[in-house]
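Work package 3, deliverable 3.1, input record:
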Amino acid sequence: MISAEPYVALSLVLLCLGLVGVMVRRNFITVLMSLELMFNAVNLNLIAFSFRLGDLAGQILAIFVITIAAAEAAIGLGLIIALVRLKDTVSLDEADLMRS
Amino acid sequence: MDFLIANFEAVLFYTVAAAAVAGGIGVVTLKHPVHAALALLETFVMVAVLFVLRHAEFLAAVQVLVYAGGIMVLYLFAIMLVRFKGMRPDEVFLSGIAPLAILGGVLLGAFVAIGILLGTMATGEGGAAAMRAVGDELPGNTEAVGWLLYTTYLVPFEVVSVVLLVAMIGAIIFGRRDAALSKPDGEVKP
């Protein structure tokens, strides 16, 4: 039975990878995917500590995180469709409609 | 072999963790969104395996159903709907890396087979009797999570369902062609 620390380390690695993706990539779709990666890292952390503490609250929280991730995906992909309609691109650099 | 059987959980964890990190690196580095989506799918499935290792079986099922099933299909729909500039139509599909995909599938199948074999060796018996013994020993994770979700966490559950409804309405409004979304100069797109 391995302890919680490797799970926390893996979660940290996945979170940092997602953060790099969000900050570096310009493709809107890839940025959203990196965001999903970060959600997964958070879930992994919650599950690891839920097991470690013997408390199911972490799993309930993870269910809520998954729900919010689904909502975020729906909204984000709607935004992508709207951006493609308006500017014919998925590049975040081109999304400057609110810049005067 | 004995080492593998004795340290089955650790070996499984580190293999799956390496695959998950590889998928994450793929999401960040791969140029084509479809390839990045497949790498993300790999990470989702590997994280589901880790959920099972931490006795969160219900969440592992939810992870596969919602993430790998629902959200990934949504992403692929969006990618296919969006037409990429300067990209040949045949590049949208996986023709170029088809041998790699076949190799990956074969390797994954071998990995799962070896995992089942080693797991059977590590836990003794792999038959139906062993499964029933495990089922009697542990309280069902799904039952426990469901009980907690509908008693202690009922109000957050209702709130999050309203959040989902609002997100759905928002996505529909964003996706409408004739919505109030207009060009910056005020000209409404037909």
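The mean pLDDT of chain A is 89.
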